[in-house]
Amino acid sequence: MNFEAVQTAREKRAAVIAACGGLISAVSHGRIPSKLDVTVSEALVLGLLKQNIRTFFAVFGHGSTDLAEVLRVYQQHGLVKVLNTRSEIEASHAATALRWVTDQKSAVVTSIGPGALQALAASLVPASDGLGIWYILGDETTDDEGPNMQQIPRNEQDLFLRLFSTMGQAYSLHTPGAISTALRRGQSAVDHPFRAGPFFLLLPMNIQPVLIERFNLRELTASFSVKPPAAEADYAAAADWLLSAKKVALRVGGGGRNAGPEIAELLDLVDGVAVISPLASGVLPYSNPRNMTVGGSKGTLCGNYAMEHADLLLVIGSRFVCQSDCSRTAYLKVQRVININTEPEAALHYSDTLPLVGDARLTLQRLLKELKKKQAKNNNQPSAWFKACSRQRQAWEKFKQQRYKHPTLFDEKWKREVLTQPAAIKAASDWASTKGVVKFFDAGDVQANGFQIVEDEMPGFTFTETGASYMGFAASALLSTAASEKKFFGLAFTGDGSFTMNPQILIDGIQHGARGCILLLDNRRMSAITGLQKAQYNHEFATDDSVVVDYVAWANAVKGVQAMTGGFSRSSLLKALDKAYGYDGLSLIHVPVYSGDNELGGMGVYGRWNVGNWCESTQALRHEIGL
């Protein structure tokens, strides 16, 4: 193979594709022949372009140099955008946030070995939250000339394939001619109509530069959109169950994010109340009186009351993560379950279930028609169920206001009064709502307090990574603002523990032009785990630290970052947020926050969880309920 000839042809081809406005147009106008001599790496990039993937978050290494060269040429001609990062974990989080917020697809590119394994760890987020991301990973050579550096050190084939297949669909491109199959498999995974997820393409280093002669571009599949239909089920029975129940509760998960109007209408027809997953914040406006907000082991007074006293549960697109249903003990009195879900296994999670397997919005529309035919409940007068839940919602609002009225507490670490997390999060969240800012929440106390506090009136403005609860997600997510074709300002709520796990955004955000702010709530400990340890064993252990870190100086050491303190009051925090919003770049606001035993310093815990010394009683209750 003549490398110079291949390179010259590639340069010309990229220029023609750019001039024609895309690959499909270039072929249809005869500017590019339908059969080409291309390397595997270029065939892959062409295939991804046809699937509308033009953004690549990359940490290149010796396992991806050939692919990097193709991307260099295609970026030079404006066909792709490559954002090099300093961590594969950061790259994965940015790609995930980009898909989550804007639905823009992208790929994560790594080398072989440690980099690929870091990407694997971070892929737990899109796998848990149902988001389609391409992962293109270097792999050991197929000639088996001896151990490759950074491969798994065992004399077996396809070990990375075996490993990555545990997290999602994976494909090893051992044979160049199988590139079209690999692309189709990847498309099926990342564009799955109801359970998208990561797809791992393993590219052996010696296969990437192989020239495929007369590669037929017809083998490349274009982007597609397949939507699941409404459930085919007994809607009359479902309607009868709902109308005969006295205490209906809806559990709205991430699968119900597109069904807000239908959920609101159904609640009125069946005299129900809703418990909202953090993933579905804003689907039902917070101001709706039937919204009992979040529930679970870190729920709310009203959300947990509704779950524990309902006699019928209508589930809409929920996975039943342990904390969301108190390790299967949340619904103490439920006798019947109607479960709308696209996955049969999830739809049959509970006993005594009528499963409606199909798209949430379309299924709810059919169910609403059936309810109206049966003359749904007359709700001119508030029912006893609605009144009882409303009292709990009022108690929760009063509970929150008590914390907001005491925004500062004396903290032993800081040796002064500092803001509490509830006060800081409330002030920043309300500020973000007035600006149309997208909020990202990191794991830990910031996350739990956050979804108890946020009061979204519409979806699409709060993204809290509860699926994997991955520390460091929020700050890394800000890189998506630099890659997005739809520009937005991001506010990352993070703790000191989460931020120090993934601080690369300070450099990469400046490198690529991210626009957003890191709100670093610093209590100098892993407060969520400290609280759990004390609740279970009355002692904390190895979740505290004595190291003083000047985060403002750290961030200001990176030229281009605007770093400042948020001070010790709501007014000083709001001034800092305004300054960050007016800055055309990346900002960091450091806010010392309280951690301690004063109940006004947090939002509380109201449910059960199958962890630590709670396991015996929680498991016993689960089997006693039998749901």
Report on the structure:
The protein has 3 domains: 33-219, Thiamin diphosphate (ThDP)-binding fold, Pyr/PP domains (Rossmann fold, 3-Layer(aba) Sandwich); 235-394, TPP-binding domain (Rossmann fold, 3-Layer(aba) Sandwich), CATH 3.40.50.1220; 413-595, Thiamin diphosphate (ThDP)-binding fold, Pyr/PP domains (Rossmann fold, 3-Layer(aba) Sandwich), CATH 3.40.50. It is 40% helix and 17% strand. Helix 5 (88-102) packs parallel to helix 6, helix 11 (260-270) runs parallel beside helix 14 and helix 12 runs antiparallel to helix 15. It is globular. A 6-stranded parallel sheet has the order 3-2-4-5-7-6, sandwiched between helices. By secondary structure, the protein is α/β, with parallel strands linked by helices. It contains 25 helices and 21 strands. A hairpin with a 4-residue loop joins strand 14 (408-411) and strand 15 (416-419).
Oligomer: single chain
Straight-line N-to-C gap:
65 Å
Kindly state the mean pLDDT as a whole number?
94
Which band does the percent of strand residues land in?
A: 15-25%
The count of helical stretches stands at 25
Count of discrete structural domains:
3
Within CATH, the superfamily of the largest domain carries the name Thiamin diphosphate (ThDP)-binding fold, Pyr/PP domains
Question: And the CATH topology of the largest domain?
Answer: Rossmann fold
Structural class: alpha/beta
CATH architecture of the largest domain: 3-Layer(aba) Sandwich
Low-confidence stretches: none
Strand order of the largest sheet: 3-2-4-5-7-6
Shape: globular
Helix share bin:
40-55%
The total strand number stands at: 21
Major beta-sheet overview: 6 strands, parallel
- CATH level-1 class of the largest domain: Alpha Beta
